[in-house]
Amino acid sequence: MTQQDTFYTTDITELSNRVKSNYELKRKTHPNERYLISIAGAPGSGKTTFANIISKEISKFANVIVLPQDGFHLYRSELQKLPNSEEAFKRRGAPFTFNPKAFVKLISQLSDHSITLKAPSFDHKLKDPKEDDIIIDNTVDIIIIEGNYVSLKDNEWNKIRNFIDDSWFIQTPESLIRQRIIKRHLEAGISSNEKEAIERTDGNDMINAKYIIENSNPTNVVIITK
């Protein structure tokens, strides 16, 4: 494998310059294709925040949109039909509680600059996906595909890498991930007290985090956050 390039979350300008250079090169050789970046990482690693920050930098030279994996959660009605439905609700956010086939199908179409596509978002009030909420029209040049599992080695997830121009991974200390997730559960009202937040974090989120760290493909770029 080619040696990975390492950046820090403070190196926004350097990363933006990387995207600009690679995007312009692709535009010369494949003018009818979009440029696709994937950003993977554990829950609490800062993927979403970082994707939004880098997209603002990229928007200075190209039309860019962030496509989150979250819209491909299984609906609660679908979780209810699973043989292990109780476990599925408890572990919601684990790989088996998503629809990777639908996600991969959409990603396989993204490079075609001439077509307009619709993608689901995730409605946190409804706790379910919201269909066709994200519009990717023919003015979009660069798409940042962001999510926990976009670099995962597992079956369907592993196909994503075939469509990506540049793959990134956010590397964050597990202690910081755990701290952030506990705080997030409390602030969002998902857990009513610290004990609940810790149990939820250790019983699901940290299991997912460890799985991602141990089972993701190597990426072109590693972004280190502290």
UniProtKB/TrEMBL annotation:
Residues 36-184 form the Phosphoribulokinase/uridine kinase domain. It comes from the Eukaryota. Gene3D superfamilies: P-loop containing nucleotide triphosphate hydrolases. It holds the Pfam family PRK. One of its GO terms (molecular function) is ATP binding. PANTHER family: URIDINE KINASE (PTHR10285). This is Phosphoribulokinase/uridine kinase domain-containing protein. It comes from Candida tropicalis (strain ATCC MYA-3404 / T1). The lineage of its organism: Eukaryota, Fungi, Dikarya, Ascomycota, Saccharomycotina.
